[in-house]
Amino acid sequence: MITSRLMTPTFGLYRYACLAVMIAVPSLAWAQNAPYDSSPSSRLHTLNPQTPQGLRELFRYTGESMPLVSAHRGGAQPGFPENCVATFERTLQHTFAIMEIDPRYAKDGTIVIHHDTSLKRTTTGKGRVAEWTLQELKKLHLKDSEGVVTEFQIPTLDEVLQWARGKTVLVLDQKDVPVEVRVRKIEEHRAEAYAMLIVYSYRDARKCYELNKNIMMEVMIPNRKKFEEFDRAGVPWNNIVAFVGHTPPKDVELMQMIHAKGTCCMVGTSRNLDRQLVVNRASGTAAIKQDYRALLQNGADLVETDLPTQVGKLLYDKSAIPASKSQFFRMSSSKRVPWDAGHGALQEED
Q1: Which residue, among 39, 99, 58, 101, has the nearest Cα to 329 in the 3D structure?
Q2: What's 237's DSSP letter?
Q3: 333: which of 90, 117, 189, 213 is 20 to 30 A away, CA to CA?
Q4: Model confidence pLDDT, tens digit, residues 243-281
Q5: How far is CA 340 from the centre of its chain?
């Protein structure tokens, strides 16, 4: 876990020094409207499958709805940048979520977590990530969802894998890091129970399975033809979550076919409903809430969203954890959280 520097004497002096610069250059102002709290009292909605078998069981299709979203790039918001550990924790303070992240090579071969090839949009740097060493990258600061500079730095894949154990499930996108390297990183951290790969071809899915049969994957299956192609790939269906697209498939039977294999389906909303939610937030969320919930009614089991803290509440505000999955869900405090009776009790940790 990253420890906040806001209360340390050294950082206090640093902030005063920065204040003078901010007066002259307002665009460099730190984002302070949502301070990051990493204290032990912060309650986190944590996922802990504990074993690779547990992870497969978590994503085994049972027909029961889980109060769980996939946080695209961790769920950036004002004060909290994308692909940032502080943001991951901020998301988990509000909802149960798995974290989709973006590994990318730095100049010295270190794998960092950063979406774009360029540094300009999300950091105080310029140029390509691959042109900077880790030491150089660590001198930069990340920008939040509104482009405001924060105190946070680019994390490495190693740092995120160390942080995530016992807290959440990571979903590692590809970017410029091939399957075999991502598999090796997961193995180095013994993270098969809480780290998955996104693969973009069934050849890569087969390669991942051959390298390590315990690593789960997110695989694109947008239509019946791809369903049949994957079915011949030699990878067990219980090793994957099926991403069916950014809109529900027109073939209404596709998700039923995937469910019949015991596999959960994921739909993305970052390109459509999330944007509508941001635009229409002032006028209320009742209508858009129905659109999100229609995804679940039509067969989606997981929603990948840029807005996990809002969408988690829209989808699962009063939902219960299924009894068959309750052992994987925890609150990181001793305080009791109300969940509907008659389902699996939410387990808690002091």
Answers
A1: 58
A2: G
A3: 189
A4: 999 999 999 899 999 999 999 999 999 999 999 999 987
A5: 26
Q: Where are the beta strands (DSSP E) in 200-333?
A: 217-220, 240-245, 265-268, 302-305, 329-331
At 9, the pLDDT band (50, 70, 90 cuts) reads very low
- Looking at the structure, give the CATH architecture of the domain made up of residues 31-51+63-187+272-348: Alpha-Beta Barrel (3.20)
Note the pLDDT tens digit of each residue in 168-179: 999 999 999 999
Domain boundaries, the chain: 31-51+63-187+272-348
From residue 315, how far is each of 252, 294, 301 by CA, in Å?
A: 21, 10, 11
What is the residue type of 105?
Y
Q: What is the crossing angle of helices 179-188 and 202-211, to 10°? A: 30
Give the C-alpha separation, 56 to 214, whole Å: 9
Torsion of CA 102, 49, 307, 75, to 10 degrees: -40
114 is catalytic: no
Tell me what pLDDT residue 333 has.
Answer: 65
- In the set 45, 72, 114, 141, the catalytic residue is 72
Q: Check if 115 is active-site.
A: yes
Three-state secondary-structure class, residue 71: strand
The structure's pTM equals: 0.85
